[in-house]
Amino acid sequence: MLRKTAENVCPLRAGIEDKKHWAWRIAQHLESKGGPCHARHTVPLKSIMRMRWYLTALEGFQEQGMDVISSRELADRIGMSSAIVRKDFSYIGELGTPGLGYRVSYLQQRIHDILSSNTCLIVWVGAQWLSNALSMFVPTMDLNIRIVAALDTRPEWIGKQIGEWEILPLSDLPALLAGGGVDGAVLALPEDARRVADILVEAGVKGILNLTPATLSVPPEVSVRHVDLLGEMMALVLECSEAG
Amino acid sequence: MLRKTAENVCPLRAGIEDKKHWAWRIAQHLESKGGPCHARHTVPLKSIMRMRWYLTALEGFQEQGMDVISSRELADRIGMSSAIVRKDFSYIGELGTPGLGYRVSYLQQRIHDILSSNTCLIVWVGAQWLSNALSMFVPTMDLNIRIVAALDTRPEWIGKQIGEWEILPLSDLPALLAGGGVDGAVLALPEDARRVADILVEAGVKGILNLTPATLSVPPEVSVRHVDLLGEMMALVLECSEAG
DNA sequence: TGCTGTGAACCGGTTCACAGCA
DNA sequence: TGCTGTGAACCGGTTCACAGCA
User: Fold this and answer.
1) A21 CB below 7 A from strand C atoms
2) Residue B36 binned pLDDT confidence (cut-offs 50, 70, 90)
């Protein structure tokens, strides 16, 4: 079963040859298409994170039958400033027409190209959260993120089926990573988060998205992003207290 | 049932008289204690978000029987730089001893004082996510965050009991907010997120923590924090590709 | 006239580097 | 000698403001 899963990873690696900066690969991608690619070879991280938002908004505009939209309209739709919208698009080319705006279908296609040009492969650790997470974001997920396996430490979860994933024991992780191509792990196990993180690191994971309230200490070559929901709640209250 | 819940909110308001910036209230709190409070009346948002991390780390050190620790040791524990640790503490006073370090118990007490001096009251929208979220962070939650009610739009969830919360219909929201003291809402309903957000805004919510993949457009007086898990996964992969 | 594309200014937050204290 | 506390430099990212094009 494990071997089967590990093999499943391999076909997904297609097109993921090297590990250079993704933004760089996007720039390459743009050049290879002969599009109007600016010399700039890095697209800011935050800008890339917004691309999917733009795509969703554009779908909405398309459904409304709008052919052309301004940065202002797009910005209002996703709750950003028009300046940041124009800036983001400027990183990936001159996509608009001064005085007029952006063609919805063209913009959609360009952003879709970029997002789908790189598929992120990750493993998910923590079965209980997986089912929720899936109901939340699976519809938009398959564009460029692929959960190649779901694991857990708790015996009562091992072997269960959640969506398309059969929950594997955490001890299968090294074999999964040996297949290569897996970029990172989502840590969503509330108990023993620090210990599980150590196991992830030892198995060779290069990045961890930490959804637990625990802080992790990892070697410098492993990158960690901490989504601290409690902290976010505190920040939310701070922000609206400030305004009110 | 609704009335009962709305009333339950009120006792929790104790000590939450005005809506000034929390950092400012922290500074006031420090001054009222006669502690060595610097003239600085704002503590950066990110700094406050880290305070709970420090507290957890300090508990660990205390269990290990350590009386005094350096900013370096604390930083390693939570995966930050020592400079940011010293900077954070400098916002709330001169807590350490040059050449020696920080006394664990004193530091613990000071941070605990600050975090517990303000309780954040929020409502949670989206029953399915609530149960997971609880297993993840309830142990550390009660320090300064309080979910006063859990709501949902889906009939099959209304009336169910999740932890200590009975799921209320979203239509109860205005009555809950009328009680006052509620600072924000967590939006964790995968379907119709934008429509539900409109309902939240109309009911008078001043801040929304958006856990859905949807982008929201709200009036400028409402603040939104978007925790975009898909975006975080992409960012994670970008980061570790960069390094590797 | 209206909107894009973008250099310059700005801003919050982090890191550097070191004076000064124990 | 060793560590804190902190001004200055730095940095990624956002906003401003406007030249220039349709």
Assistant:
1) no
2) very low
Integer Cα distance of B53 and A212 in angstroms: 12
Residue A132 to residue B132, Cβ atoms within 8 A: yes
pLDDT in tens, A68-124: 999 999 999 999 999 999 999 999 999 999 999 999 999 999 999 988 887 888 999
SS3 letters across B182-220: CCEEEECCCCCHHHHHHHHHHHCCCEEEECCCCCCCCCC
Q: Which nucleotide is nearest to B97 (CA to C1')?
A: D4
Chain B's closest residue to A140, CA to CA, is B213
A40 CB-to-strand C distance under 7 Å = no
All residues of chain B having their beta carbon less than 8 Å from the beta carbon of residue A228 are 49, 53
The answer to whether residues B208 and B225 touch, using CB atoms and an 8 Å cutoff, is: yes
Q: How many Å lie between the alpha carbon of A201 and the closest alpha carbon of chain B?
A: 13
Q: How far is the CA of A156 from the C1' of C4 (A)?
A: 57
Structure confidence by residue, pLDDT tens digits, A153-184: 999 999 999 999 999 999 999 999 998 888 89
Q: At what angle do helices A45-63 and A22-32 cross, to 10 degrees?
A: 50
Whether nucleic acid strand C comes within 7 Å of the CB of A54, the answer is no
CB contact under 8 A, A136 and B21: no
Beta strands in chain B (DSSP E): 68-69, 102-103, 120-125, 145-152, 161-162, 165-169, 184-187, 207-210, 223-226
| Nearest by Cα to A106 from A48, A40, A62 | A62
How far, in Å, CA of A23 to CA of A20, rounded? Answer: 8
A171/A153 Cα distance (integer angstroms): 8
Confidence of residue A243 (pLDDT cuts 50, 70, 90): low
Q: How far is the CA of B205 from the C1' of D9 (A)?
A: 41
Report which of residues B68 and A129 the model is more confident about: B68
CB contact under 8 A, A237 and B120: yes
Q: Rounded to 5 degrees, what are φ and ψ at A212? A: -90, 165
Lowest mean pLDDT among A20-29, B55-64, B73-82: A20-29
